[in-house]
């Protein structure tokens, strides 16, 4: 944890969330959130309800899982937004200007 914090502070300021400055990803039997399950999350944004969503996240493997899984997917959201702005301007306007109430 100390070496991870040292690396993070060299890149930028560390923003804490309601989970704290660090969060251990673990599966819980009675999970109320997909983040606590072994289900595939697919493409998503973390903490979309924050006024400052995470810009860069560091993931550190503490214990290697022995089995299948662990595949990651990434997308360039800025490229998607630009394509929508150019090809679907009405939908882009709706998505970029409409406030949405989020709950979890």
Descriptive labels:
104 residues; mainly alpha; 3 helices
In short:
With 104 residues, the protein is mainly alpha-helical. It is built from three helices and no strands. It has helices at 2-11, 77-87, 89-97.
Question: What topology emerges from the helices and strands here?
Answer:
Elements: H1 2-11, H2 77-87, H3 89-97
Q: How would you describe this structure to a colleague?
A:
With 104 residues, the protein is mostly helical. The protein contains 3 helices and no strands. The radius of gyration is 17 Å and the shape is globular. The mean pLDDT is 83.
Give the uncertain stretches in residue-range form.
Answer: none
By oligomeric state, this entry counts as single chain
Report the order of strands and helices: HHH
Count of helical segments? 3
Total DSSP E strands: 0
Structural class: mainly alpha
Amount of helix = 25-40%
């Amino acid at each position: 944890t100390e070496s991870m914090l040292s690396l993070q502070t060299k890149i930028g300021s560390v923003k804490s969330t309601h989970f704290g400055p660090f969060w251990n990803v673990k599966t819980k039997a009675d999970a109320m959130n997909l983040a606590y399950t072994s289900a595939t999350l697919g493409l998503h944004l973390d903490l979309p309800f924050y006024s400052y969503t995470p810009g860069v996240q560091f993931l550190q493997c503490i214990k290697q899982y022995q089995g299948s899984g662990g595949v990651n997917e990434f997308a360039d959201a800025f490229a998607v937004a630009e394509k929508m702005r150019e090809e679907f301007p009405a939908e882009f306007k709706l998505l970029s200007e409409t406030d949405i109430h989020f709950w979890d």
